[in-house]
Amino acid sequence: MHHVEDPKVDILSHGRRKNSAHILTLDKVLAEDVYTRLHSNEQMKSFEFILPKNLGRKEGVEEIDAMAPDTVRSRIIIIDVRTSTLTWLQQAYNKVVGYNRRDLNTSVFNVLIGDGPVNLFQNGNSMDMFVSHLASLRVDYTPAAFFFDPFIHYEPDEIPRMGAEQQFHISDKVPKRLLPYFTGHSEPTVSKIRKFFRAEGKSEKDKQKRLKVLRSVFEQRVKKQFPNHIQKLEQLMSKEGIQISTENMHVYPMYFEDWIYELFVKAS
What we know:
Blueprint: E1 18-24, H1 28-39, E2 48-50, H2 59-67, E3 74-80, H3 83-100, E4 109-114, H4 130-141, E5 145-148, H5 190-198, H6 204-225, H7 233-236, E6 242-244, E7 247-251, H8 256-267
Parallel strand pairs: 1-2, 1-3, 3-4, 4-5, 5-7
Antiparallel strand pairs: 6-7
Helix pairs in contact: 1-5, 2-3
């Protein structure tokens, strides 16, 4: 589904942007993780991070749609583009892009967090599945960076068929392919795991130690699924990310805060 310009959207340049970022998602667990990581970063403590209030609720879609005009005062727009909620948020996101299109990648940057292609783990051992996926996101959002989040990528048989009233249910279950790595936790959930690995209130040494453990989990998973790409594994987990065709991909939350801060500097 590609971007269709809304003729009612004003796409003129907006010069009065501030050190603020809009975080657009319906997922309260991801929203908390992104907000806490950025707000607790010493370099961004004085910055403003704006979240929808109706997280996890149907009203959240209308709220994000209504927030679109306000995004012109931010320098960063973080957009959750996971497959399961994109259908309902696409129109709102179209407006956001429309309002900011003139300034994209100069005074404002889009940063995407999302899952991968639906059949990513059912199509052999190649990461080429990401080529068309990232190309589609490029057309729609012109992002400065795309972060693949393993904790929101579910295989087709893990996603229940939902009726109209259930469409805003966002699972807190750990994706089954990652579950074996967290057997030491009692009733592991994405919420608990995110909280543990962001290590809020812990020393920088402890934070880095936990991040190293998380990186190891992701590396093991990638090696198992994509043995032909082991040589590029270090690059995938690095700050620079991995290049797939013409697009760069990163893994959330590796170097996420660093990327956001540096984009703030560029935008200002």
